[in-house]
């Protein structure tokens, strides 16, 4: 069996554990509209190493769970659908952090520990211009952790959006105007 649609069947995370042992060759899995599927399902789903299409719309997955899942899935796996709240977050992520980072600002979280305190504050101020909850005060360790957290989320969100774009022959850079199941365009990164 390579394709399985168990949407709207009240499947739980525990059921997925059994599924993985009995159908490890699955290429397409639809578990949408099963509200008992949570972020904890990422481990059994990630064990499906041949997976190329995954439907998660209508589950209880969250952005933090999807961020972890997207790194655990095979690189060619497309997230065909995701929960509405997660899609809304991706569409509105420009309210969480700076989506377009100009030259001279850190984009890679690995760069952050080498930044000076003024550079850390300048980078955080860029993200604060989009999200007033971003704090630019604190000691060096706090500033490093804050900026690294923002940039790690940004990188993971980009990977998440990329995994949604694979079968659409698109990329997040050119998604403006391309509607992803909500009627709202996915903004540029």
Q: Span from first to last CA?
A: 37 Å
**What sequence of helices (H) and strands (E) makes up the elements?**
EHEHEHEHHH
The value of Rg in angstroms is 18 Å
- Helix count equals 6
Average pLDDT metric: 89
What coarse outline follows from CA principal-axis ratios?
Answer: elongated
Main sheet properties = 4 strands, parallel
Helicity level = 25-40%
Strand content: 5-15%
The secondary structure category is alpha/beta
For the secondary structure, the number of strands is: 4
In order across it, which strands form the biggest sheet?
1-2-3-4
Poorly predicted runs are 170-189
Q: Helices, strands, pairings?
A:
Layout: E1 3-5, H1 13-22, E2 28-30, H2 42-46, E3 53-55, H3 63-72, E4 78-81, H4 84-91, H5 117-128, H6 140-165
Parallel strand pairs: 1-2, 2-3, 3-4
Helix pairs in contact: 3-6, 5-6
Structural account:
- The protein is of the alpha/beta class and 189 residues long.
- The protein is 38% helix and 7% strand.
- It is built from 6 helices and 4 strands.
- It has helices at residues 13-22, 42-46, 63-72, 84-91, 117-128, 140-165, and strands spanning 3-5, 28-30, 53-55, 78-81.
- It has a 4-stranded parallel β-sheet with strand order 1-2-3-4.
- The longest helix has 26 residues, at 140-165.
Short description:
This protein is an alpha/beta fold. The protein has helices at residues 13-22, 42-46, 63-72, 84-91, 117-128, 140-165, and strands at residues 3-5, 28-30, 53-55, 78-81.
For this entry, give a set of tags.
about 190 residues; alpha/beta; 4-stranded parallel β-sheet; disordered C terminus
């Amino acid at each position: 069996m390579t394709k399985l649609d168990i949407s709207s069947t009240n499947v739980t995370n525990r059921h997925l554990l059994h599924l993985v042992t009995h159908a490890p060759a699955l290429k397409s899995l639809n578990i949408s509209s099963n509200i008992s599927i949570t972020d904890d399902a990422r481990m059994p789903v990630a064990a499906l190493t041949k997976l190329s299409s995954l439907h998660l719309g209508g589950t209880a997955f969250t952005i933090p769970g999807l961020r972890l899942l997207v790194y655990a899935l095979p690189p060619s796996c497309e997230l065909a659908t995701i929960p509405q709240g997660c899609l809304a977050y991706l569409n509105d992520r420009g309210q969480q952090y700076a989506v377009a980072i100009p030259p001279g600002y850190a984009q890679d979280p690995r760069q952050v520990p080498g930044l000076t305190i003024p550079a850390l504050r300048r980078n955080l101020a860029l993200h604060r211009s989009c999200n007033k909850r971003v704090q630019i005060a604190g000691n060096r360790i706090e500033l490093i952790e804050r900026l690294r957290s923002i940039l790690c989320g940004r990188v993971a969100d980009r990977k998440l959006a990329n995994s949604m774009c694979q079968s659409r022959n698109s990329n997040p850079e050119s998604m403006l105007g391309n509607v992803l199941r909500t009627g709202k365009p996915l903004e540029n990164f």
